[in-house]
Amino acid sequence: RSFGGETTITATLFPGDGIGPEIADSVKEIFNATQVPIKWEEFEIGKTIDPRTGSFLTWESMESVRRNGIGLKGPMTTPIGKGFKSLNLTLRKELGLYANVRPCLSIPGYKTRYDNVDLVTIRENTEGEYSGLEHQVVKGVVESLKIITRQASMRVAEYAFHYAQTHGRKRVSAIHKANIMKKTDGLFLQCCREVAEKYPDIVYEEVIIDNCCMMLVKNPSLFDVLCMPNLYGDIISDLCAGLIGGLGLTPSGNIGDNGLALMEAVHGTAPDIAGKNMANPTALLLSSVMMLQHLKIQDKADQIHKAIMKTIEEGQYLTRDLGGKSSTSEYTKAVIGNL
Ligand code: NAD
Fold first, then answer.
1. How far, in Å, are 262, 273, 290 from residue 101 at the CA level?
2. Are the C-beta atoms of 65 and 56 separated by less than 8 Å?
3. What pLDDT is stored for residue 111 in this prediction?
4. Contacts of 229 (CB under 8 A, 6+ apart)
5. Distance of alpha carbon 189 from alpha carbon 107, whole angstroms
6. Interface predicted TM-score (ipTM)
7. What pLDDT shows up at residue 93?
8. How confident is the model at residue 49 (pLDDT cuts 50, 70, 90)?
9. 281 CA: nearest ligand 1 atom
10. At what angle do helices 230-244 and 209-218 cross, to 10 degrees?
11. Among positive and negative, which fits the CA dihedral 126, 127, 130, 132?
């Protein structure tokens, strides 16, 4: 299909639940207004467990992401109960999404304690403390296994350095606790060092996680690209989201083999405001901008990004989380007006 002379790309869309469908609508409206050459293949979360995935996500939806190689995902609640896997974990495992990338950039016009935050966290997404291997040894004693493999560590380190090189970044910091976790974090660091040798133009450093937290809140501009194991990445990336204004603003990308990418907002389903036309769609919108950048549809990515920044800077149509009074649809309309 041709769209204004350009070939249309098919992308998978999971609106998700809670505020997901409302913010996904905002993305669809803005893409239409910008004439982005994307055709969505949309999937709801199933009502029954699909035995082929062991979760409420259907096998067909996984196949769609595999086939298209690109997708956008709204937040998803994992229903509480036994006998099925977390939706987010299913996506990561089924699709081999080994790296989670979160750019954290100060938004001009939205004042926080810091003006010039410009860093990227890259988190190993498949193993470490989140391997899901926990059991009770005897009553009152439980054990959780932290798995670090050379394969997954090399893969995420390679990605971090490649990302730094292709995005004009100067420094990669490996974040660790190898002074205590000598074997696991030791192996992670060893892999980062090996990869660093192949990138002499990029400064490589190693920072202990506790010191990293202190440095981040004192002066975030000390960092550029941060690469780390799963649990540290989960925590540090939320800390970084806080530096620029919170969950309504932070996008992310999950990266797999052969360029497969599933972008998503960092936040959850926000059940307290779901269905009320109150959610801030910026995080999902910026995730969709990351998707366009990944697809090298740079002109549309820039156009949408600029319109979002202008709308926030003008400050007239901000959602409640940013101190405004506008609804999701009023904000969306304002962004469209600024395209
Ligand atoms: P949450 O991110 O949903 O909400 C935390 C707070 O931030 C709430 O007050 C919410 O109203 C606000 N908020 C979040 N996103 C917002 C937005 N776009 N605009 C305005 N305000 C926003 O975190 P939670 O309450 O801990 O989790 C709720 C559910 O989401 C849980 O079921 C959790 O498992 C799920 N979750 C899913 C994902 C994901 O799909 N990737 C991530 C985190 C949490």
1. 11, 27, 10
2. no
3. 86
4. 123, 124, 127, 128, 129, 148, 153, 176, 184, 185, 188
5. 32
6. 0.98
7. 83
8. confident
9. 18
10. 10
11. positive
Dihedral sign (CA 206, 210, 213, 216)? negative
Q: Which atom of ligand 1 is nearest to the CA of 87?
A: 40
Ligand 1 centroid from CA 27, angstroms = 18
Helix (H, G, I), strand (E, B) or coil at 180: coil
The C-alpha atoms of residue 74 and residue 233 are separated, in whole angstroms, by: 20
Q: Ligand 1, closest atom to CA 265?
A: 41
> Count of residues for the chain?
339
Give the global pTM.
0.92
Query: How many Å lie between the centroid of ligand 1 and the Cα of residue 273?
Result: 10
Place of tokens 């975030």: 220
Q: What is the mean pLDDT of the chain?
A: 93
| Token digits of residue 250 | 């932070």
Nearest CA to ligand 1 atom 13: 270
Given a cut of 50, whether residue 2 has pLDDT beyond it is: no
Indicate the pLDDT class of residue 87, thresholds 50, 70 and 90: confident
Structural tokens at position 111 = 């004042």
Enter the tokens of residue 40.
């969505």
Rounded to whole angstroms, the Cα distance separating 227 from 161 reads 9
In this predicted structure, the answer to whether residue 170 has a pLDDT above a threshold of 80 is yes
